[in-house]
Amino acid sequence: MRSHIRAELPDLSSDQLIPESWLDYATAVQRPNLPPTHPIHRTRRIAIDLGEGVGRDSTSILVRDADGIIDLIAGNSLCLADAAEETARLDQIWAVDDSRISYDKLGIGRDFRNHLVRGGLGNAIGYAGSGRPQDPKAYTNLRTEAAWKLRRRLDLERHTDDRYPVSSRQPPFHIPPRASWMLLREDLEALSYDLIGGKIRLIRTEDMRLHI
Q1: pLDDT per residue over 20-53, tens digit each?
Q2: Is 0.90 surpassed by the pTM of this model?
Q3: Domain extents for the chain?
Q4: What fold is seen in the domain 2-209?
Q5: C-alpha distance from residue 31 to each of 26, 36, 87, 177 (Å)
Q6: Span 92-143, pLDDT tens digits
Q7: Residue 95: which region, alpha, beta or left (left: phi > 0; alpha: psi -120 to 50)?
Q8: Cα(62)–Cα(100) distance, rounded to whole angstroms?
Q9: Among 153, 141, 41, residue whose Cα is nearest residue 97
């Protein structure tokens, strides 16, 4: 509901994007065992964040559905060809339509589509995190909007209908506590936000360092 979403916009000038307690809960909660025909499986998607392949700047390939993270591959030695190959492998395992695969098309991502096409994933969607959000009145860019949607999905108290705050509470979001999750968690814990001109703006650790 549009009015409910608008009511979730923050009053604070700045804050941590995702409280650590929400992440703790997401890794502790059990994912329900659902049959292969359950509709939740049709919500699967793959997101690819391309790194430079040096130091801690890792490439991450994440498989998720509406109920949580399913699989995560991360490494700082994955070149573009390797990342495309891993994406194709995960696509085969989890039966994700390639139109539900997204990747960052800027920077080194400019050439990534060619590798995906060779792997039969030509319908994957390239995006620019600095681009226009779906709700430009609330968010400064697409990356901020996506991050805020993740915050809302992890919110332990969030419900989708103000008339039924208990029965419409969203189901828990599950994150498998694997080794690769710890790197992703560090990145999430480093995110904060502020308000600029009445819009939410995502602040990353590297952005904050530029102003120190």
Answers
A1: 999 999 999 999 899 999 999 999 999 999 986 5
A2: no
A3: 2-209
A4: Nucleotidyltransferase; domain 5 (3.30.420)
A5: 10, 14, 23, 12
A6: 999 999 999 999 999 999 999 999 999 999 999 999 999 999 999 999 999 9
A7: left
A8: 12
A9: 41
